[in-house]
Amino acid sequence: MLVYHKRGIDSVIILTQTVNGRIVNYRTGPKAQYSKECLIEFATVDSASLAGKLVGQKVTWKSGSTKMVGRIMSSHGRNGIVRVRFAHGVPGQAIGTLVQLIG
């Protein structure tokens, strides 16, 4: 799915192409790190309003034969980063790798 923003109109148009994002980091707190939740940045999403429209969609991370599916829970900050929750903890080697938005 390709997500892009029309200038002057606050809408997200989703087409039938793939959208890739990058795992930026785990969600962290002052005393804990949550390995089930990751912060993901999509290149075409650059504001909190666009990130909010992605809430509820699924994301997949693949590494060899391992495939993990997560759901976008909320936006994170004002720059278009989203928070994704996976069923199991994501390994450390996943940070910096690509994920796909599957709708």
Return the average pLDDT rounded to an integer: 86
The total beta strand count reads 8
CATH overall fold name: Thrombin, subunit H
CATH architecture verdict: Beta Barrel
Superfamily at the CATH H level?
A: translation elongation factor selb, chain A, domain 4
CATH domain class name = Mainly Beta
Return the string of H and E elements.
Answer: EEEEHEEEE
What general outline do the C-alpha atoms trace?
globular
How far do the termini sit from each other? 7 Å
SS-based class: mainly beta
How many discrete domains?
1
What portion of residues is helical?
Answer: under 10%
Low-pLDDT parts are: none
**Which radius of gyration do the C-alpha atoms yield?**
13 Å
Summarize the biggest pleated sheet.
Answer: 6 strands, antiparallel, barrel
Tally of contiguous helical segments: 1
Strand order of the largest sheet: 3-4-7-6-5-8
* Beta-strand residue percentage: over 45%
Q: How would you describe this protein?
A:
The mean pLDDT is about 85. This protein has about 100 residues and is mainly beta. The chain is globular, with a radius of gyration of 13 Å. It has a single domain, classed as Thrombin, subunit H (Beta Barrel), CATH 2.40.10. A hairpin with a 4-residue loop joins β3 (about 20-30) and β4 (about 35-40). About 25% of the residues are buried. The chain has a 6-stranded antiparallel β-barrel. Strands 1-2 form a two-stranded antiparallel sheet. About 5% of the residues lie in helices and about 50% in strands. The chain is built from 1 helix and 8 strands; from the N terminus they run ββββαββββ. The protein has one helix spanning about 50; strands spanning about 5, 10-15, 20-30, 35-40, 60-65, 65-75, 80-85, 100.
